[in-house]
Amino acid sequence: MRFCLLAGLLSSLAFADQLDTLALQHKVPDELVPALRAAFPEASIQGIQGQLLIRAADQASFDRIAAMARKLDQPSRRLQISVQQRDSASSAQLALDGRVVVSGQGIKGGVHVSAYDQASSQQLLQTLRVMDGGRAMIELGSGRFVPVWHSGFTGEWQTAASGFWAEPRLVGDTIHIRIYPKSSRFERDGSVVMHQMGSDVSARLGEWVLAGEIATTVSLSKGQRQYQVWLKVDAD
Questions:
Q1: Of the chain's two ends, which shows fewer C-beta atoms within 10 Å, N or C?
Q2: For 183-234, how does the pLDDT look when each residue is reduced to its tens digit (9 = 90+)?
Q3: Are 64 and 216 in contact (CB under 8 A)?
Q4: For the whole model, what pTM was predicted?
Q5: Angle at Cα 19 formed by Cα 65 and Cα 56, nearest 5°?
Q6: Rounded to a whole number, what is the distance in angstroms from the first to the last CA of the chain?
Q7: Which residues pair with 215 in a beta bridge?
Q8: In this predicted model, what pLDDT tens digit does every residue of 51-79 receive, in sequence order?
Q9: 1 to 6, 45, 150, 227: CA distances (angstroms)
Q10: What keywords tag this UniProt record (predicted)?
Q11: Cβ 197 vs Cβ 179: under 8 Å
């Protein structure tokens, strides 16, 4: 059955100048075909029975495709993904204080006005290991029970956690990674601040890159909050 299927494909593409198959040693065709098609859009490259079926314009073009395929056809490597989530906030507020005294002598009073800036920042670094082409996630946090009065005391659990989900793919010395980080924490006033994003990033191994950032401005307090995600991928 395998021979008949392959023979049928070969006969249907008999008009090609150069047509041949290339056996893979470590990868499956679906892992290599997208990268090969992007590098050689003029060629026809398909996966069949654990092999690559390549149709090229000439022998030289076929040899270039085969050379790249052999370079990519390497054993899966173990990757270490490091993600740093940075959350900073600043605000400019106005403070007003004073004293007024009312007496039979008249009214005495004083008012003091001052402006001041507030700033806070939080940085969280998390790492995990995953095989090239695999998927992994990490999430660490805490929970609390919030009581609520509704025809009697009841309540709900709230969770604040930080982590990320990642899917890396290594091509040569370049890492292509799809990542979904999120971060949430409890504030002093009882509220929960949460950030999350999704990003597709390409970078060189061992290089810190900015995966994404969110900046928001609150006009009432003239404050600004900035959330950034930096990542680095190393290979064993």
A1: N
A2: 888 777 777 888 888 999 999 999 999 999 888 776 555 567 788 999 999 9
A3: no
A4: 0.58
A5: 45
A6: 41
A7: 226
A8: 999 999 999 999 999 999 998 888 888 99
A9: 9, 21, 69, 56
A10: Signal
A11: no
For residues 168 and 203, the answer to whether their CB atoms sit within 8 Å is no
**Residue 76 has what DSSP assignment?**
P
Can you name the CATH fold of 2-72?
A: Ribosomal Protein S8; Chain: A, domain 1 (3.30.1370)
- Residue spans of alpha helices (H) in the chain: 2-12, 29-39, 59-72
27: Cβ–Cβ under 8 A, 6 or more apart, which residues? 72, 73, 74
Where does the chain hold its CATH 3.30.1370 domain(s)?
2-72
Pairing outcome for strands 223-235 and 153-171: unpaired
The residue written with tokens 């390409």 in the block is: 202
Q: What are phi and psi of 7, to 5 degrees?
A: -65, -35
DSSP single-letter state for residue 150: S
The Cα 42–Cα 15 span in angstroms is 15
